Fold:
Amino acid sequence: MLPISDFKINAHKKSKLNLIGKIKVKLLVVFALVIAALFFTQLVFASNLAVDGQKIAQVDKEIQALEAENTTLKVQVAKESSLTSLAQKAKDLGYTIPKNIINPQ
Structure:
């Protein structure tokens, strides 16, 4: 027989190998695109986390400032409502201690 039949078999094998090679290249391109998309998605999430972290730090600073102001106001309320300051205010307003106390029985 002539080697034509061998040529057809070899050509068929080469086309199968070429097809498998094309599929492998396409898969590699798809995987590369998926990995790139995942990488950029991770960058976006990391950026959002950094911004959220800055906002949380700012809110924490505001909380600390308000807690300090709250403590200061509590101290002022305690001073103003103490018996000595209330007695002084009453004296300044003209209140006097009664000399005769009547106990009804």
User: Anything to note?
Assistant: The chain has a mean pLDDT of 84. Residues 32 and 44 are 18 Å apart (CA to CA).
